[in-house]
Amino acid sequence: MTNGHQALDGQPEFDIAIIGGGPTGLFGSFYAGLRGMKTLLIDALPELGGQLAVLYPEKYIYDVPGFPKILARDLVQRLVEQTMQYEPTVRLEEQVVNLEPLGERHLRVVTTRGAYHTRAVLIAAGVGAFAPNKLDAPGIARFEDRGVYYFVRSKAEFRDKRLLIVGGGDSAVDWALNLQDTAREITLIHRRDQFRAHEGSLHELSQSRVRVLTPWEIKEVYGEERVTGVTIVNNQSGAERELSVDAVLLQLGFKADMGPIKHWGLSIEKRSIKVDSRFATSMPGVYAAGDIAASDVKLDLIAVCFGQAAVAVNAIKTYVDPKARLFPGHSSDMSAAPRPAS
After folding, report:
1. pTM over 0.85, yes/no
2. In whole angstroms, how far apart are CA 57 and each of 48, 130, 255?
């Protein structure tokens, strides 16, 4: 994998440029290699893996076929190993700022470091750029990264600590369960009586050692050099409580921003790109898959994204090479996997 750049002119050097190095982009890159396409994989982050690598590398994922559970970072490692078999050109820390159609089966992908020429594009940018939702309670900003966190980059950060988790969705509940073997004690508060997490996770939570308080919110975080406690308030009765804690993990969701994508002339629907049954967008030669795609049935699951990437890449193969078949046959039937043209 490289971070360098070489500006290109003339005819397309790549058959497919994939924008986004998360699970969808990685599996799409693998499948493009399987179909013998010369592939460019671009991501704005400094490492591959998308949200799995940045937001929750040490979180278990339970709904990936073939794995009863797998750490996000381990899934990323396996996906990277899978796609690198076909030696795609990888460009990290480059944000794609524009797509320019130059003719039939010819697009120019403009990034913050230059431009690339390709026959087709697969947008697999997830939810786009993302930033955590924050609270404006006193003490939150002051103690960010000194006891107040929005991400779990390493479970070791919470070893033997009294941890308060705030939130009512899957991330809050999952981390409460996942950190039981690390933190000394865990309290989970949510401002509503009902959680939005998966039923199975909520059942496991009810059987865990996690203390659950609803409907409570943070009123203040305090301490000296680091967090030592919080004041929480019951938003129905107005009652207040003091909790001695060493760390606060805020899991309040994220603001997603499509960024430059919304200015590329594609048909957009509710912060997603409209696609057809082959995951083609309104721009010839440009396809979208994964969380960014506004498919008929929208389920933002990794398993679904893998299937969408396979459909999109096979469709792109027939676009790039009209003589190619949409379905190449099962990989288990191939005596030798094809290599991309040099």
Report:
1. no
2. 12, 16, 20
